Amino acid sequence: MLLRIMQFPTKRIRKHLDGYPHGPITLHTEDDFKFMAKIGRIAAETLDFIAPHVRPGISTAELDRMIHKFMTEQGTVPATVGYHGYQHASCISVNHVAVHGIPSATKIIKNGDIINIDVTPRLDGPDHWHGDTSRMYMVGDKIPIKARRLIEATEKSLAAGITAAQPGNLLGDIGIACGQVAKDYGYSIATDFCGHGIGLTFHDNPEVIHVEPEDMGPTLLPGMIFTIEPILNIGGHEVKTLADGWTTVTRDRKLSAQAEHTVGITEDGLVIFTESGRAN
Ligand code: MF3
Ligand code: CO
Ligand code: CO
User: Fold this and answer.
1) What are the CA-CA distances from residue 80 to residues 27, 87, 109, 120, 122 (Å)?
2) Ligand 1 pocket, 64 CB below 6 A?
3) Is the pLDDT of residue 280 over 70?
4) Phi first, then psi: what are they for 172, rounded to 5°?
5) From the CA of 120, how far away is ligand 3's center (Å)?
6) DSSP symbol at 84
7) What is the pLDDT of residues 182-223, one digit of tens each?
8) Phi/psi at 260 (5° precision)
9) Dihedral sign, CA of 147, 256, 259, 73?
10) Left (φ > 0), alpha (ψ -120 to 50) or beta: where does 269 sit?
11) Mean pLDDT of all residues belonging to the chain
12) Which residue from 91, 226, 261 has its CB within 8 A of the most atoms of ligand 1, so it is best to mutate?
């Protein structure tokens, strides 16, 4: 009986745990997973493409312009453009900016900076599937040891969360795994932000918490698709959003880092849709 529920649905269903806790979780089909593999690969390739351009002296607006052009050439649309009024193809968060940094012509990155680039291309046309991923980049050759260590912890936190995302585990197991890595390093997790279901919708159920949650949530089932995107801070977990409505900085202005993948639960494990084909 348990085995039955561990099978992919043959038809996409949007009723699993109807209403839990903010609405149903969609269970996708194997065909849906094929679309996700396609858009996920383009999302990863976008981050690969921009890597050699992340150099001292370039503005974040210029990086965003190149990202937008690349996405368009791949037959995709940046899902962030027009999203609640956001106007850019990427979020570029430098140093103490934890998330949602707005690309700007006056923000010139310099040797020693660490930056997160977050992209969400969407397939153009009726099959408008989303791929959401972000990565840390080191600018130049003068990266402080503490910044390197923060990036290492962030990547390990994401990897631990991914390892915990297995069919039969609970959603909360992901948070426990992500949070444990941060704790081991002595860092905090910015708990105001979470991962999310994704697919035909950019931000969907469930919410994916990156620390041990109060409620462990539902069992992970084949067909679930969501992001894992822990934000780690060297200092406190508190962040604040600036007057522009997006840029979110650490309250203590200490360094912050984030990494994100879009994953899907299968019958016997998971797929990372946004895995890079090459070392960065
Ligand atoms: N890609 C972000 C995420 O991981 C969302 C960015 S929304 C934007 O969920 F409008 F700020 F671009
Ligand atoms: Co996301
Ligand atoms: Co993202």
Assistant:
1) 24, 7, 22, 7, 9
2) no
3) no
4) -65, -20
5) 6
6) G
7) 999 999 999 999 999 999 999 999 999 999 999 999 999 999
8) -140, 135
9) negative
10) left
11) 96
12) 91
